[in-house]
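Record passed on here:
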Amino acid sequence: MNKLLTKTQMEQVFDRLYSQVTAALPAEGDIAIIGIRSNGVPLAERISDRLVAKFPKRTIHSGALDVTFYRDDLKTRTSIPVARSAELNFDVDGTWILLVDDVLQTGRTIRAALTELHDFGRPAAVRLAVLIDRGGHQLPITADMIGATMDIPIDQKVKVQLEETDGQEGAYGIETQ
Protein backbone atom coordinates (compact mmCIF):
# COMPACT_ATOMS: atom_id res chain seq x y z
CA MET A 1 0.00 0.00 0.00
CA ASN A 2 1.53 3.29 -1.08
CA LYS A 3 0.38 6.70 0.10
CA LEU A 4 -1.00 8.87 -2.70
CA LEU A 5 -2.30 11.84 -0.70
CA THR A 6 -1.57 13.14 2.79
CA LYS A 7 -4.19 14.79 5.00
CA THR A 8 -3.08 18.25 3.83
CA GLN A 9 -3.21 17.20 0.20
CA MET A 10 -6.67 15.69 0.75
CA GLU A 11 -7.88 19.04 2.10
CA GLN A 12 -6.49 20.81 -0.97
CA VAL A 13 -8.12 18.27 -3.32
CA PHE A 14 -11.45 18.67 -1.52
CA ASP A 15 -11.22 22.47 -1.72
CA ARG A 16 -10.57 22.21 -5.47
CA LEU A 17 -13.59 19.92 -5.86
CA TYR A 18 -15.80 22.25 -3.80
CA SER A 19 -14.79 25.24 -5.95
CA GLN A 20 -15.85 23.35 -9.07
CA VAL A 21 -19.16 22.44 -7.44
CA THR A 22 -20.00 26.04 -6.53
CA ALA A 23 -19.16 27.15 -10.09
CA ALA A 24 -21.48 24.51 -11.55
CA LEU A 25 -24.57 25.18 -9.41
CA PRO A 26 -27.68 26.28 -11.27
CA ALA A 27 -28.80 29.84 -10.60
CA GLU A 28 -32.19 28.73 -9.31
CA GLY A 29 -34.26 25.69 -8.46
CA ASP A 30 -33.89 22.88 -5.97
CA ILE A 31 -30.47 21.34 -5.41
CA ALA A 32 -29.71 17.93 -3.93
CA ILE A 33 -26.31 16.62 -2.90
CA ILE A 34 -26.36 12.80 -2.83
CA GLY A 35 -23.49 10.66 -1.61
CA ILE A 36 -22.84 7.10 -2.73
CA ARG A 37 -22.17 4.80 0.22
CA SER A 38 -19.86 4.54 1.82
CA ASN A 39 -17.24 7.31 1.41
CA GLY A 40 -19.35 9.39 -0.93
CA VAL A 41 -21.76 10.14 1.91
CA PRO A 42 -19.37 12.06 4.21
CA LEU A 43 -17.96 13.91 1.20
CA ALA A 44 -21.49 14.87 0.13
CA GLU A 45 -22.21 16.03 3.68
CA ARG A 46 -19.08 18.21 3.65
CA ILE A 47 -20.14 19.78 0.37
CA SER A 48 -23.73 20.24 1.55
CA ASP A 49 -22.66 21.84 4.84
CA ARG A 50 -20.48 24.36 3.02
CA LEU A 51 -23.20 25.14 0.48
CA VAL A 52 -25.84 25.68 3.17
CA ALA A 53 -23.48 28.11 4.94
CA LYS A 54 -22.63 29.93 1.70
CA PHE A 55 -26.18 30.04 0.30
CA PRO A 56 -28.49 30.22 3.35
CA LYS A 57 -31.53 31.19 1.24
CA ARG A 58 -31.24 28.25 -1.20
CA THR A 59 -33.02 24.95 -0.67
CA ILE A 60 -30.31 22.32 -0.56
CA HIS A 61 -31.39 18.74 0.03
CA SER A 62 -29.02 15.95 0.95
CA GLY A 63 -29.25 12.21 0.65
CA ALA A 64 -27.49 8.88 0.26
CA LEU A 65 -27.63 5.93 -2.13
CA ASP A 66 -26.52 2.38 -1.49
CA VAL A 67 -25.94 0.70 -4.85
CA THR A 68 -25.37 -2.81 -3.46
CA PHE A 69 -28.36 -4.41 -5.21
CA TYR A 70 -27.82 -2.40 -8.40
CA ARG A 71 -24.26 -3.63 -8.99
CA ASP A 72 -23.53 -5.77 -12.04
CA ASP A 73 -21.28 -8.09 -10.01
CA LEU A 74 -23.89 -9.01 -7.40
CA LYS A 75 -24.25 -12.55 -8.76
CA THR A 76 -20.52 -13.22 -8.53
CA ARG A 77 -20.17 -12.33 -4.87
CA THR A 78 -19.40 -15.21 -2.53
CA SER A 79 -20.85 -13.59 0.59
CA ILE A 80 -24.22 -12.02 1.27
CA PRO A 81 -23.89 -8.27 0.83
CA VAL A 82 -25.03 -5.90 3.54
CA ALA A 83 -27.11 -3.11 2.07
CA ARG A 84 -28.55 0.02 3.60
CA SER A 85 -31.59 1.82 2.34
CA ALA A 86 -31.43 4.90 0.19
CA GLU A 87 -32.04 8.16 2.03
CA LEU A 88 -33.81 10.52 -0.34
CA ASN A 89 -36.31 12.54 1.68
CA PHE A 90 -37.20 14.92 -1.15
CA ASP A 91 -38.81 14.79 -4.56
CA VAL A 92 -36.20 13.82 -7.14
CA ASP A 93 -38.39 14.95 -10.05
CA GLY A 94 -37.14 18.25 -11.46
CA THR A 95 -34.29 18.56 -8.94
CA TRP A 96 -30.70 19.39 -9.95
CA ILE A 97 -28.66 16.58 -8.41
CA LEU A 98 -25.00 16.35 -7.57
CA LEU A 99 -23.94 12.73 -7.18
CA VAL A 100 -20.80 12.44 -5.02
CA ASP A 101 -18.30 9.60 -4.65
CA ASP A 102 -14.76 9.33 -3.37
CA VAL A 103 -13.09 7.57 -6.33
CA LEU A 104 -14.09 7.03 -9.92
CA GLN A 105 -12.43 3.67 -10.59
CA THR A 106 -14.18 1.64 -13.29
CA GLY A 107 -17.44 3.58 -13.62
CA ARG A 108 -19.56 0.62 -12.55
CA THR A 109 -20.57 2.09 -9.19
CA ILE A 110 -21.67 5.31 -10.89
CA ARG A 111 -23.72 3.34 -13.43
CA ALA A 112 -25.42 1.52 -10.58
CA ALA A 113 -26.08 4.80 -8.75
CA LEU A 114 -27.67 6.36 -11.83
CA THR A 115 -29.93 3.33 -12.24
CA GLU A 116 -31.00 3.49 -8.59
CA LEU A 117 -31.49 7.26 -8.69
CA HIS A 118 -33.82 7.03 -11.66
CA ASP A 119 -35.99 4.54 -9.75
CA PHE A 120 -36.86 7.54 -7.54
CA GLY A 121 -37.82 9.89 -10.34
CA ARG A 122 -36.57 12.08 -13.14
CA PRO A 123 -34.11 14.77 -12.04
CA ALA A 124 -33.71 18.03 -13.95
CA ALA A 125 -30.01 17.18 -14.28
CA VAL A 126 -27.45 14.90 -12.66
CA ARG A 127 -23.82 15.94 -12.29
CA LEU A 128 -21.00 13.80 -10.89
CA ALA A 129 -18.36 15.00 -8.45
CA VAL A 130 -15.49 12.73 -7.37
CA LEU A 131 -12.60 13.40 -5.07
CA ILE A 132 -10.24 11.30 -7.21
CA ASP A 133 -10.47 10.07 -10.80
CA ARG A 134 -7.95 7.25 -11.13
CA GLY A 135 -8.43 6.60 -14.86
CA GLY A 136 -8.79 3.14 -16.36
CA HIS A 137 -12.58 3.28 -16.58
CA GLN A 138 -14.39 0.25 -17.94
CA LEU A 139 -17.55 2.19 -18.81
CA PRO A 140 -17.92 5.48 -20.71
CA ILE A 141 -18.50 7.52 -17.55
CA THR A 142 -16.69 10.72 -16.71
CA ALA A 143 -17.00 13.08 -13.76
CA ASP A 144 -18.10 16.69 -14.19
CA MET A 145 -16.09 17.82 -11.17
CA ILE A 146 -12.83 16.21 -10.09
CA GLY A 147 -10.64 17.03 -7.10
CA ALA A 148 -7.59 15.18 -8.43
CA THR A 149 -6.78 13.04 -11.45
CA MET A 150 -4.24 10.25 -10.95
CA ASP A 151 -2.72 7.72 -13.30
CA ILE A 152 -2.90 4.52 -11.26
CA PRO A 153 -1.65 1.17 -12.62
CA ILE A 154 -4.44 -1.18 -13.67
CA ASP A 155 -3.46 -3.72 -10.98
CA GLN A 156 -4.12 -1.18 -8.21
CA LYS A 157 -7.15 0.60 -6.87
CA VAL A 158 -7.42 3.77 -4.84
CA LYS A 159 -8.56 3.56 -1.21
CA VAL A 160 -9.66 6.81 0.42
CA GLN A 161 -9.75 7.18 4.18
CA LEU A 162 -11.87 9.93 5.71
CA GLU A 163 -11.94 11.30 9.23
CA GLU A 164 -15.67 10.54 9.55
CA THR A 165 -15.37 6.86 8.65
CA ASP A 166 -11.75 5.92 9.34
CA GLY A 167 -10.51 8.41 11.93
CA GLN A 168 -7.85 9.71 9.54
CA GLU A 169 -7.50 11.30 6.10
CA GLY A 170 -5.48 9.97 3.21
CA ALA A 171 -5.54 8.22 -0.13
CA TYR A 172 -3.64 5.03 -0.89
CA GLY A 173 -2.87 2.84 -3.86
CA ILE A 174 -3.47 -0.81 -3.02
CA GLU A 175 -2.83 -3.95 -5.04
CA THR A 176 -5.93 -5.72 -6.33
CA GLN A 177 -6.09 -9.46 -5.95
About this structure: The beta strands are 2-5, 31-36, 60-65, 96-104, 125-133, 145-149, 156-161, 170-175. The first strand starts at residue 2 and ends at 5. Residues 7-24 form the longest helix (18 residues). The chain has a mean pLDDT of 93.
